[in-house]
Amino acid sequence: MKRGNLFNYFLLLILPLLSLSHGSYSQNSMTNVTSGQKIAENIYLLKDYGCNIAVMVGQDGLIIIDTGYKGSALKTDSVISTISNLPVKYVLNTHLHFDHVGGNMKLAEDGAVIIAHENTRKHMLSGWKVPEIQGINYSPVLPYSIEYLPKICFKDSLKIYVNNDVVQAIHYPNAHSDCDVIFYFQNANVLHAGDLFESNGFPILDVWYGGTIDGYIKALDDILKICNDNTVIISGHGDPSNRQGLQDYRNMLVESRTRISNLIEEGKSVDEVIAADPTKDLYKGGESWIPVKLYVATVYEDLSRK
What we know:
Elements: H1 6-14, E1 37-40, E2 43-46, E3 53-56, E4 62-65, H2 73-83, E5 88-92, H3 98-101, H4 104-109, E6 113-117, H5 118-126, E7 152-154, E8 157-162, E9 165-172, E10 180-185, E11 190-192, H6 213-226, E12 232-234, H7 243-265, H8 270-275, H9 292-304
Parallel strand pairs: 4-5, 5-6, 6-7, 11-12
Antiparallel strand pairs: 1-2, 2-3, 3-4, 8-9, 9-10, 10-11
């Protein structure tokens, strides 16, 4: 199916009226359709499809960062068509989670090559399952079929020369997970941080797949060195931000780590630590996109192992 054809246009008209089921990882509504927020001369942001999806437009074709939920893949594909009818050349995955890789197959069907860290492919091959967290259960993700998997994988870093720009991919081990990658468009000065930055609240550490709070903060320190005051930073969820927003986020996590660590040293259980509200007054943006207790519980789990 070629993008921009009548069928895609028809989908664009009717799909906003449909209710699509999806996983509980982000708890976000998927009923709104956006045509893409322009954040740089040739880079657009799509929201409401599971995660923040970036679209780069250029003569070499489209570059897509993350693909959202599987259930929204057709809708995402249709909205991309309203931005440009050029083919998708590369899909870049920031990490393994299903709200970031679920649309891979749809875009790969049209010829896109998927690129990710080698651990992302490994985990997609084996599936994803985590235990109950503070009374919240996440449905297991079965192993992905070959159509979803990255075809090009790397270990530490990679540079992609495309659309008169250089897209720099950098892996940060043991951060949000063990396969987190940022993608930095050097000429456009736009950085997609994936779930290494959540501008709308606290993150969840996937401690069962290599996530650690120390690795997370170390990654933020390095990302801050890459950015300048004019860098547009796309978070995994939430609105685009800038270097100061990322600095404030880093400081918030550092302080919360200190508070949680102190409570652990006092011999507090995870429920007692959560009840002590160690993140109080740290997030200034209102209600966090995920329940704060999930963040506290995963940091507790990580620090308790040390």
